[in-house]
Amino acid sequence: MDRPPTSAVASQAHPLTWLLDAQAGAADLSGPPVWSGALCAGFAGGRDGCSACHETCPHGALSRTADAITIDGDACQRCGACVSACPTGALQRRFLPDADIFATLERALPPEGTKPSALVLRCRHEAGGPLEGLASGGGRAVSIGAPSIHLFSEAHLLGAVGMGFRAVLLEPCERCRGERGVDHPQRVADLANRLLAAWGLDEERCRVGRSAEPETADWLAGVAALEARPWTPPQSILSRREVIADLAAHFEAVAGARGGVAAKRTDPYGEPAVDDQRCTLCGTCARVCPTGALNLSVEEGLSLRAVDCVACGLCEALCGEEAVAVSCVLPAGAASRQRRVLKQSQWHRCPDCGRTTYSRDYVARLESLLDRSSHYATPQARELLRLCEPCKGRRAIGPLLDAEAGAAGSPDGGCGAVGKSALVRLPILGSPSPQGPPAPEGAAGDAAGVSRRDFLRAAALIAAGAGFAASRAAAETGGGGTGSVAEGPGVPSWDPSLIDRNALIRMQADLGRALEKPMAQRRWVMVIDLGKCVGCHACTIACVAENQLPPGVVYRPVIEEEIGTYPNVRRRFVPRPCMQCEEPPCVPVCPVNATWKRPDGITVIDYNRCIGCRYCLTACPYSARTSDFGEFYSDGTPARQPYEELANYEYKSRWRRSGGGSPVGNARKCHFCIHRIEEGMLPACVTTCIGVATYFGDANDPQSLVSELISSSRVVRLKEEMGTRPNVYYLM
Fold it and tell me: DSSP secondary-structure letter at 226?
């Protein structure tokens, strides 16, 4: 390993002055930096934010894609410029972490009682002479060799000044400029000087130059006269921002409790301001902030820790109310480290459970947006806006529960007219009447109670006795035949169309027929038979697997409720997908038009346009939308599982959540498996339902199964009084 000659002064100062050079001896053989999408300030909601790493790389090894930073391992020279430029820590070196650099700078200080004057950071490729003779006024110049000057950021220079060095000289070699001629060391020194000036140290403390040049030598000779204010680094340095925050507090006496000076647009420091009249405290800015500088809480409202702001501009770009503006300001004093309240508001509480829900301004904004849609501007809608998501979901199935509660209180022991018929009902396919012919004699059982499980077992035995001829007849008729099969004495007459699995055959034929029509001539609907749902949650799991849903995101939950009074108690299972309303309240409230309704009746979301304001979640009266917070099932475990790294397919595009891009931070919901429908396949929940309780098809086709089912008198829809006209029907 080659190294420049060690200065006698430096080696006498401390035996660890060449620690950086020793640690990084194998830097050229190590891998390129590692990028973390979760910390990157460059992407959110389809917008480009910070690009400091890409602009700084002197070798052109970094490039941007739609939602990621890619590093060319062959072009990368491991200089560390991108890492020192990254304001959020999204890029990390595989060698020389910041904690080691700060520890080395602290150890490089001369022994106590010796007056340090300057720290010279040299590139180890530079073959310059020893540094003797550069000290003046009784001070010492300490030299540290590093693989590249690009390794050092403004935080390292500021930390060195705070530790006791009166000045820092960056002495790069010709190789440090790279093929693109990027003068990153000068940018770092300039930024460090302006931060020090904001903290009350106006003299030039940081410089880029050659120690052999007369001007630089004179500057080094004079820095010993500069004032020093010793700073004790934190015991555990978490990040460069923590170092800067600590230094800002250290120099508070000079800079004042409040302050800051204008910064350049390229500097990674800023200060967001909020328009109190426009802001509704929807929380979008706080959710997209990659550094946590902005935070929303019930106690403080929207608050800012200025020293954490990297001026990426995502909060300004993604605010649906255009209420945020970011100005470039260098932090100064302890005020930049403390949280400052930008806006407060009164908060509503859920009328049902009492938990805090949304701010007063947020609800008022939603009400004004919904007032434009007269079909939804009702007192019931306004009440729902103040409910929390779980209570809203329970309210949505209220009509179904009320009907069951009445049936459970009937004199027959909880199996009233509605409940008893639900226990034995099977789909009647291809019948001239929506209700279909009566069940075979003896199948329903008496009031004493033949359980649904026993009945299904008996039906399966009867179907098996019918033999292969029944199965073949059902296949040939597509489940729509009305003929019967009798095989000898003792075998009752049985209609093959009653076999549950034939519903899939017919629905598949209905789907193929619908896809032959233009999109505008279709109306996709879903019918759910509550009497046949057994609460197995197979539809929920199938949906999670099909769409690779993360924790907390469920498109088709099955809501379980207990009905009746002991001992006549049973459970009701209500699957609740998105209702795909004809008049969806989620559409008019979206401030960026990220959600809309297709001609075939399915409401969709543009993940690249969605800003995560969650207006649509609050406006939905069915609690059918959820927010993707970027969580993984393997969070908190030693390693992320490979299946979670796979891209999922929605809305005709592939989405890879592992990089932190869309749909992380977006609203998500059921879309009837559009990607499957348009390929001629039924939705995953339909094909997986073991009780054949879910039906799907085109309601504009009078021959389809769903058209027959929704014409039944037993059909109900949720929250019809609100005028949403949902396209999901329930059979009671």
Answer: S
Q: What is the pLDDT of residue 254?
A: 57
Single out the residue of 190, 159, 170, 175 nearest to residue 79, CA to CA: 175
φ, ψ (nearest 5 deg) of residue 282:
-75, -20
Say which DSSP state 666 is in: S
DSSP readout, 167-211?
EEEEE--GGGGTTTT--HHHHHHHHHHHHHHHTT--S--EEE--T
What is the three-class DSSP state of 261?
strand
Question: Where residue 338 falls among pLDDT bands split at 50, 70, 90?
Answer: confident
H helices present in 331-396, as ranges: 360-370, 379-384, 389-396
Helix axes 240-250, 154-163, angle to 10 degrees: 40
* CB-count exposure of residue 151 (10 Å: 0-12, 13-18, 19+): buried
Q: How far apart are CA 682 and CA 507, in angstroms?
A: 8
The more confidently predicted of residues 248 and 205 is: 205
Task: Compute φ and ψ for 34, nearest 5 degrees.
Answer: -105, 135
- Which residue has better confidence, 350 or 100? 350
Task: For residue 529, list its beta bridge partners.
Answer: 731
Q: Which residue has the higher pLDDT, 652 or 28?
A: 652
Residues in the chain: 732
Per-residue pLDDT at 17 exceeds 50: no
Average pLDDT rounded to a whole number, residues 588-603: 93
Q: How far apart are CA 689 and CA 540, in angstroms?
A: 10
Query: Is the peptide bond preceding residue 663 cis, with omega within 30 degrees of 0?
Result: yes
Q: Tell me the average pLDDT across 678-703.
A: 94
Q: Report the pLDDT value the prediction gives residue 700, as an integer from 0 to 100.
A: 95
- Selection from 347, 390, 728 nearest residue 552 by Cα: 390
Please report the pLDDT score of residue 520 as a whole number. 94
How much is the pTM? Answer: 0.73
pLDDT of residue 511: 94
Q: Which amino acid is at 513?
A: R
Structure tokens at 535: 């609460």
* pLDDT tier for residue 179 given thresholds of 50, 70 and 90: low
Q: How far apart (Å, rounded) are the C-alpha atoms in residues 483 and 321?
A: 63
**Residues 655, 608: Cα–Cα separation, whole Å:** 10
Q: Identify the pLDDT of residue 130.
A: 35
Q: CA 47, CA 284: separation in Å to the nearest integer?
A: 14
Give, for 374, the enclosing helix (H) or strand (E).
none
Give the phi and the psi of residue 693 in degrees, each rounded to 5. Answer: -100, -5
Provide mean pLDDT across the span 418-438: 31
* Number of other residues whose CB lies within 10 A of the CB of residue 226: 16
Cis omega before residue 567 (within 30°)?
yes
- What burial letters (b/e) apply to 5-30, b meaning 16+ CB within 10 Å? eebebbeebbeebbbbbebbeebeee
DSSP 8-state assignment for residue 29? G
Residues 6 or more apart in contact with residue 605 via CB below 8 angstroms = 594, 595, 651, 666, 667, 668, 669, 671
Percent of the chain with pLDDT over 70: 74
What is the Cα–Cα distance from 294 to 278, expressed in whole angstroms? 17
> Residue 66 — φ and ψ, nearest 5°?
-60, -35
Pairing of strands 261-262, 329-330: antiparallel
Q: Where are the alpha helices (DSSP H) in 289-378?
A: 314-318, 360-370
Q: Comparing C-alpha atoms, which of 695, 632, 650, 709 is closest to residue 38?
A: 632
Radius of gyration for the alpha carbons in the chain, expressed in angstroms and rounded? 34
Question: Is the predicted pLDDT of residue 456 greater than 60, yes or no?
Answer: no
Q: Poorest-confidence range of 58-67, 206-215, 715-724?
A: 58-67
Alpha-carbon torsion angle 282, 284, 286, 291, nearest 10: 180
